[in-house]
Structures are given as C-alpha cells and as structure tokens.
Design brief:
This protein has about 400 residues and is an alpha+beta fold. The chain has ten helices and eleven strands. Strand 7 and strand 8 form a beta hairpin. The radius of gyration is 26 Å and the shape is globular.
C-alpha cells in the first residue's frame, strides 16, 4: 500500500476479477468489461438476469406502447430510457434495475452522517465506485448494469452509480429518485477544477492535558516579551518588490487561464446536450427523514462526489424524467427555460399537468389547471398511463 495521508492507494486488484491480461474491471472501459467478463462466463448471474418472466414481458409490452405513442406525439423531444439491456443483454424495464437494499452497516443508513459531515452512504459510494464518463456524452447508454455488478466492478457511469445509490437510500427508508437530465461539462466529466476542496476526512485534533499545560506556561512568559529589544527587520526591499511583481504576474496568468476556460465552455458544441443522471431526495411525510431533511424539502445528490446540490444550481440544466423502483415519470412541460426544476413545487409527481407516469398506481382525482394557467406553463398531457401494479413483477 502507498499511504497518502488518510487514504490508501491499493497497488493490487481489489475486486477479485480480472481480464485475460490480468487487468481489473475498474481499469478498462465498459465495452471491454461486458465483452471480457460477461461473455466469457467468468461471472455467474441468477436466472432472472438472463430472461424475463411472463409478467415482465407483459410489462415491457405496456412500456413499448407508451414509448411508441410518446415518440409519435413528441418527435422532437429526446428519447426515453425505458427498457435498456442489462449486463446479460436481457431487456428490462428501467425501474426494475432499482433494488431497495438495506446493508448491515449502520454507517450507511444515513445519506450523510449527522455527526461527521462528508461521510455516509452517498460519500461512501462516491469514494468506493470509480466514476467513468459516458462513451457518447449526448446519447443514452444502450446497457445499464445492476447495482450488484456495479459494486463488484467498483466502477460505473452516472446511470450505474445513481441506480446503486438510489437502491441503498430506498432500502433505508428515504424517498429517493433517479433523475435523468442534462448538466454542464464539468459535472459530466467530474471535473473539480476551480472548486474548493473541503478536507472533511481529516480527523479533529483535540488538545491533551499535556499540551494545555505547555500552552499555559508559554502564555505566562509572554509578559516579558515587551521588555526585550526587538530585532531590526532584515527583509530586503529589492526582494520584496520582486516578490510583489511575481505575485501580480501569477495572478494575471491565473485570470487569463480562467478566461480561456470560460471561452472553451462557450465554444463547446455539446453544451446543454450532455446527458447526466443524479439522485433526488424528498422530505416526504410518510418516508424517512433525518436532521438534514425537513418535511417538503427537495434536493439533489451528485453520485460522483456524494455532495448535496441545491435545486437552483446552474450546473444542472434540465430534467427530462424521473424514476424509482415503482414508476417512471416524464416531464410534460414544453419550451423549458432550464429553471423549472429550481422550485420544489415542480417535483409534485401527482400533478399530471407537469408529469406523465408510465403506470397509474393510484386513481387521483383530476385537478383544475389554474396553477399552470397563472404560471404560463404550456403542458400537453398524453395520458398514456396504464394501470399495472409493479408489485406483480416480484
């Protein structure tokens, strides 16, 4: 092991899997992992990973019908990720990838530890799972792996890590969702450039009795310092002037670097089109809440860093759809400004003016469109929902 302060960088394979060339899965891309570790038969999967049950096939028929009608009504909108293939090339409904799981570790029960900020379930997943970018930043991935495989491989893209984190949060009672949308290049590439690093992993050092006694003795001797003759300043005025010039030159160079980086962002051809996935937590009355979550509170969690993100963060540009282990909701607001998701009220998933669920779990009474009319929001519900309780799939 190579020690690096509080962290240890392993110099050996930490997951027990490797390719024919001896490479661990977290050192190769996703396409190679699927080919060399799945197709080769090195990993064994349950039968449910390789084929669907009759109930799952029925579910996929409903999902395909919803997708076809949505595409016909909204041909200009982005496609939906409803039924990707898993690691065994079997097509599954995306909600079935989310598996609420409660691990036997109390340290992972909270999304963020109340007593130790920077630790908890979200931070652990961000540190344990290596983040990789999507091979095609503007397209949905054709393959999404299960949370168990992501843990085994110790690497995943934003889809894989978000589904894993949501599964653990749902397992401990949180009202968590996976959000599909668009983000800036810095978020999609997990770039920490120009961001302040808060070393929350550093232990808090408390003064011992011996250190306190030494400090008291030192304070007693300070009263004699004023009686001592002070030494003259030996600093060279020439060196001081040169240091100030060098500091000014470095600051100017740093400003030019930032300006160049901003110009590169403006010239980014994929700006606003980069697909990204993150996790959302709601403070629902019927769900679990902790000290950091108030009732009615809504916030994001970035899976690559494990940090809490406010709804009005400008790095998260737009929300296309949301899903959890029970349903999938599509945003029905047209002509988005990119600021709809800055308000908590936007995520009222029971409002059919703003969200269209794939399956109707409960029959809600229709509400008047007064709020949408006042806000000037143009919505076009398609009402293609099907009543199909997902618990029948289990």
């Amino acid at each position: 092991m190579i020690a690096l302060q509080n962290f240890e960088i392993p110099n050996h394979n930490t997951c027990g899997l490797e390719t024919k060339d001896g490479e661990p899965p977290y050192m190769i891309d996703k396409e190679r992992r699927l080919k060399e570790m799945i197709d080769s038969g090195d990993m064994q999967f349950p039968e449910g990973y390789r084929k669907n049950t009759p109930k799952e096939d029925m579910c996929l028929e409903f999902v395909d019908n919803f997708k076809n009608q949505y595409t016909q009504l909204y041909p200009s909108r982005a496609p939906l990720l409803l039924s990707p293939r898993n690691e065994c090339t079997c097509r599954k409904f995306i909600c079935t990838f989310v598996r609420p799981t409660e691990l036997p570790y109390e340290e992972l029960y909270d999304w963020e530890s109340p007593s130790m900020p920077g630790k908890g379930c979200a931070a652990y997943i961000a540190n344990y799972i290596r983040y990789e970018e999507l091979p095609k930043p503007t397209e949905l991935p054709p393959v999404v792996v299960s949370p168990a495989t992501t843990l085994k491989w110790q690497i995943g893209d934003c889809f894989d890590i978000s589904i894993l984190l949501a599964s653990l949060l749902l397992g401990t009672g949180y009202d968590a969702y996976v959000v599909i949308g668009y983000a800036t290049r810095e978020v999609c590439e997990n770039s920490q450039f120009r961001k302040n690093w808060t070393n929350t992993m550093e232990p808090i050092v408390t003064n011992t009795e011996e250190e306190s006694s030494k400090k008291k003795k030192k304070d007693k001797t300070r009263k004699y310092y004023s009686k001592l003759r002070q030494r003259p300043s030996l600093e060279s005025a020439f060196d001081k002037e040169n240091n100030e010039k060098k500091r000014d030159a470095d600051n100017k160079l740093g400003d030019e670097t930032i300006d160049t980086d901003d110009k590169d962002n403006d010239d980014d051809e994929m700006a606003g089109k980069r697909v990204h996935v993150w996790v959302m937590i709601m403070g629902s009355p019927s769900k679990r809440k902790d000290a950091s979550i108030e009732e009615g509170d809504v916030f994001f969690v970035e899976p690559s860093t494990g940090q809490r993100v406010d709804l009005n963060d400008p790095s998260y540009l737009e929300v296309e759809s949301i899903f959890n282990d029970s349903n999938y909701w599509v945003s029905m607001i047209e002509n988005k400004t990119g600021k709809e998701h800055h308000e908590k009220e936007y995520f009222n998933l029971t409002d059919l003016r703003k969200w269209e669920p794939v399956f109707v779990i409960e029959d809600d009474e229709e509400e008047e469109d007064t709020d949408a009319a006042v806000a000037g929001i143009k919505t076009t519900p398609i009402h293609l929902c099907f009543f199909f309780p997902l618990f029948l799939l289990t």
